[in-house]
Q: What sequence folds into this?
């Protein structure tokens, strides 16, 4: 039986970071700009107006790499048990 502490942390981190990355991709495709004074949903999906387009893209890629990496690790842990 696989331990709770072996699968739960990578599942939470992977799901959270992947969801955030996908929300940023969605916001980028729709042209949503976040920042101060905007609603929470715009801040969550939008790009940072103080950053360059390149920095916003790098941040989105980092979120997706961390999230998908954790989900991949979770998959290997589950397959080994």
A:
């Amino acid at each position: 039986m696989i331990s709770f502490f072996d699968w739960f942390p990578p599942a939470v981190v992977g799901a959270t970071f992947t969801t955030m990355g996908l929300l940023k991709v969605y916001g980028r495709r729709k042209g949503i700009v976040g920042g101060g004074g905007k609603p929470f949903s715009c801040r969550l999906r939008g790009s940072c107006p103080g950053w360059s387009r390149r920095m916003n893209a790098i941040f989105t890629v980092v979120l997706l790499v961390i999230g998908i990496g954790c989900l991949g690790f979770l998959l290997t842990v589950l397959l080994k048990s």
